[in-house]
C-alpha cells in the first residue's frame, strides 16, 4: 500500500505525518535536525516515499537528504498549501504535517520546482553579488545625503568616479570633523565592496563562460553579463514553464485580475513572485527607456512610448519588462537569438477598404 508523508519543518526539528491510500493517518513523529538522527529516520521509511515539505529557508539540506535516502521530496508553496487545507480550529505542527500529507495524497499539493543542487550553489554566489551591490548603492546614497546636508556641491556628475573622488577629497575639509571622518570611512567601505564585487563578477564569469543560456539572453535589448547571469540562474530549466505567459507571471510582471458580475478590473502586479527575476527584467526595461533615443523604432521603445502616454511611466516599464520576460522564454526554448517582433499590419478604416477595393 502506498503512503504519503507530510513534513512540517522548523529550525531545530521537523514533524512527519503519514497517510495511506485509504486516507488513514499513522503516528506522528518528531525528528530533531541532527544529521545522524534525521538520516536514520529517513532510512526507516519505505523506499521511494513521497514526502511533501514547505518551501522555506531550510529546505535545501532536507531535500538533499531525502533524495540521498532514495525518497522523492515535493516542495509546497506555503501560503497556497494553507489555503487548500482550509480553516481549522487548531494550528499545530501535527495539523500542518497532516495537511501536507493529505494534499499530496489527493494530488492537490501546490508544488514548487526544486532547483538542482549545482544551480542552488551557483545562485548563492550571484545573490551575494547582488546583496553587496545593494549595500554599495546604500553607501553612495548616504554620502550624497551628507553632502546635501552641508550644501557641498561638486562640479562632476559622478562624484565616485576618478575625477569626482579627487574633487571630493580636496573639499572634505569643508565638512565638520566627525562628519568628515564618517564620509572617509564610508568611502573606504565603498572601495572594499567594489573590490569584492569585481572579484565575484570574475568568478561568475568563469562559471558561466560556457553557458549557452547566458549568451542567448545577452541578445535581449540592454541585457549584459550581470543581468543575463541573473536571468539564466534564476529561471533554471526553461522547459518547466508551459509557456511564455507563465514566465511573466513567475517574474511578477502580470497584473492581478478582479472579474465579477461582468466587470473586469486589473490591479497591481502580484507580490508573491521571484523578486530577483522581477528586478532583473525591470532593470533591463529601465535601461531601454534611458536609451530610447538610440533604440528608437524598436518594439520595446514603441511599446513604452505608446503606454507611457496613456498610463504613465511605471506601468509602461512593467509592460516592457513583461515583453522581455516572454522573449527570454522563446529565446531559451527555441535556442535562437532575440529578434525584433514583426509589426502587425495596420487595420484600414472602412473608407480606405472601399478605396482599396475599387482601385
3D architecture notes:
The longest helix is centred in the middle third of the chain and has 33 residues. 56% of the residues lie in helices and 12% in strands. By secondary structure, the protein is of the alpha/beta class. The chain has a six-stranded mixed beta sheet.
Give the structure's gist in a few sentences:
The protein has 359 residues and is of the alpha/beta class.
Q: Taking Cα atoms only, what radius of gyration do you get, to the nearest Å?
A: 27 Å
How many distinct beta strands?
Answer: 8
Shape: globular
Helicity, as a percent range: 55-70%
Taking the alpha carbons of the first and last residues, their distance comes to 77 Å
The H/E string reads EEEHEHEHHEHHHHHHEEHHHH
Number of helices: 14
What's the mean pLDDT score? 89
Give the neighbour order of strands across the main sheet: 3-2-1-4-5-6
Observed structural traits:
single chain, 359 residues, six-stranded mixed sheet, alpha/beta, 8 strands, two-stranded antiparallel ribbon, globular, disordered C terminus
Strand and helix map with partners:
Elements: E1 3-9, E2 13-20, E3 29-32, H1 35-44, E4 50-54, H2 59-68, E5 72-76, H3 78-85, H4 93-106, E6 111-112, H5 117-149, H6 162-171, H7 177-207, H8 212-217, H9 225-235, H10 244-250, E7 255-260, E8 263-269, H11 275-290, H12 299-311, H13 313-334, H14 350-358
Parallel strand pairs: 1-4, 4-5
Antiparallel strand pairs: 1-2, 2-3, 5-6, 7-8
Amino acid at each position: 500500500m502506498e503512503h504519503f508523508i507530510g513534513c512540517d519543518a522548523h529550525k531545530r526539528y521537523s514533524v512527519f505525518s503519514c497517510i495511506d491510500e485509504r486516507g488513514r493517518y499513522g503516528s506522528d513523529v518528531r525528528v530533531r535536525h541532527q544529521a545522524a538522527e534525521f538520516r536514520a529516520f529517513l532510512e526507516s521509511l519505505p523506499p521511494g516515499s513521497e514526502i511533501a515539505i514547505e518551501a522555506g529557508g531550510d529546505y535545501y539540506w532536507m531535500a538533499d537528504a531525502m533524495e540521498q535516502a532514495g525518497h522523492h521530496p515535493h516542495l509546497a508553496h506555503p501560503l497556497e498549501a494553507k489555503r487548500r487545507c482550509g480553516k481549522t480550529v487548531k494550528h499545530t505542527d501535527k495539523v500542518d504535517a497532516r495537511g501536507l500529507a493529505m494534499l499530496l495524497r489527493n494530488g492537490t499539493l501546490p508544488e514548487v520546482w526544486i532547483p538542482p543542487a549545482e544551480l542552488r550553489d551557483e545562485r548563492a554566489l550571484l545573490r551575494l553579488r547582488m546583496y553587496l551591490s545593494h549595500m554599495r548603492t546604500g553607501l553612495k546614497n548616504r554620502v550624497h545625503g551628507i553632502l546635501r546636508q552641508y550644501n557641498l556641491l561638486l562640479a562632476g556628475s559622478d562624484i565616485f568616479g576618478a575625477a569626482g573622488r579627487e574633487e571630493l577629497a580636496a573639499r572634505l575639509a569643508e565638512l565638520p570633523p566627525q562628519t568628515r571622518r564618517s564620509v572617509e570611512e564610508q568611502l573606504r567601505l565603498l572601495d572594499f565592496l567594489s573590490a569584492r564585487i569585481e572579484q565575484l563578477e570574475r568568478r561568475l564569469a568563469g562559471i558561466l563562460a560556457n553557458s549557452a543560456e547566458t549568451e542567448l539572453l545577452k541578445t535581449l535589448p540592454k541585457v549584459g553579463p550581470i543581468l543575463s547571469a541573473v536571468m539564466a540562474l534564476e529561471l533554471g530549466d526553461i522547459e518547466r514553464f508551459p509557456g511564455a505567459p507563465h514566465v511573466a507571471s513567475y517574474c511578477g510582471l502580470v497584473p492581478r485580475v478582479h472579474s465579477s458580475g461582468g466587470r473586469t478590473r486589473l490591479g497591481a502586479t502580484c507580490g508573491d513572485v521571484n523578486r530577483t527575476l522581477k528586478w532583473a527584467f525591470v532593470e533591463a526595461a529601465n535601461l531601454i527607456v534611458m536609451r530610447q533615443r538610440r533604440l528608437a523604432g524598436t518594439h520595446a521603445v514603441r511599446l513604452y512610448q505608446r503606454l507611457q502616454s496613456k498610463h504613465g511611466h511605471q506601468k509602461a516599464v512593467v509592460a516592457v519588462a513583461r515583453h522581455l520576460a516572454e522573449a527570454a522564454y522563446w529565446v531559451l526554448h527555441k535556442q535562437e537569438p532575440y529578434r525584433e517582433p514583426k509589426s502587425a499590419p495596420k487595420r484600414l478604416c472602412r473608407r480606405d477598404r472601399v478605396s482599396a477595393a475599387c482601385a
